[in-house]
Amino acid sequence: MSWRLASRLSVVTLALLVVLVVAVLQARHSFGGASSNANPSTNSSGLQGTDLGGTPAPDFRLTDQFGQPVSLSQFRGKPVVLTFLYTHCPDVCPLTAEKLHTVMQSLGADAQKVGVLAVSVDPKGDTLTAAQQFSQTHKMLNYWHFLIGTHAELAPVWSKYSMYAQAAAVSTPASTGSVSHSTALYVIDKQGHERVFLSDDFTPQQLTADLRVLLGE
Length: 217
Prior knowledge:
This protein is an alpha+beta fold. The chain contains five helices and ten strands, in the order αββββαβαβαββββα.
């Protein structure tokens, strides 16, 4: 009887372990699929990224790298890519600019049918000259509008798009100081509605695919 009881307990224990392992693997797979930014989910419209539900994108008006006034609403009829950068950023911002250039190259002639807006998160450091140089360095001078302004002009835009921006407390001039800021890339459709959000680890292929979907709508 003892041998039979031990045998039965071994079988039951093994079965429970198998069930537990399967459950853990399924949970890990589900969690990974939900949180992976490298492979964002595709919504019913065929867009990759976090679905923003078509909320109207808040309008704003700032000055671009050419000193010209630019508003979001003037791009009605075109898909728009909206991001937040600063010219002295040592890491994420230059990489984002390079990826945006790759997207524009991939779109070919259709690049002129897309609006790209980069809103400054560094009111003091992002001067007109700095915006022009940064745009030139990353080959985006004629592809985007790098939008600058005073803190009073930029802060409301950050707030509207749930962005955080704070210059670091440093003794060097503000123009060379670092800025702690949240990163985001909003994809807005031709009607001015927020469609998807991409984090800073988006790939050019993902954004290019999204823009082609919106261009075809």
